Write the structure tokens for this entry.
Amino acid sequence: MERHELPHAIVYTSNTGHTRQYAEMLGQKLQLPALALDKAITQLPEKSCVLYLGWIHANRIKGYSRAVRRFSVCAACAVGLCDMGTLLSEVRRATSVPDTIPLFTLQGGFCSGKIKGLDKILIAMLQKGLSAQQQRSAQEERMLQLLQQDKSYVCEENLTGILAWYREYTAER
């Protein structure tokens, strides 16, 4: 990727729809198409510059390794249950996102009806463990409420960091 090549698209992988919502919002703000990874692979040329968004699973950004094999990723966003801006070093390390690629974490939400298999069991264990704790940190309390209420935190305000980065990135071009 050239240092200041402009992104051609927002490419994403979504599980329960929160990442897709962020990708579509970001696409509207930046006037870029938002494409699911499978669709992007068929529609965009190899090595196209893209912004990549994926959901967090075990501190890894789903679809990221597949996206970097096909595209030139200029920034990545990881969407999960975590608070905004947290888990950056853990996600970067687990997903092998180079330090040269800006990484953002966005709080998505929880939709129990869309969780399946082993993930459903792991979420139930997390919820049970958090519920059993006598004292919880503020972050643990928010996580427990999220898991109990099927809540979404997706909103335009959460895109402030990536939008600021994008303005600076495109101004350098």
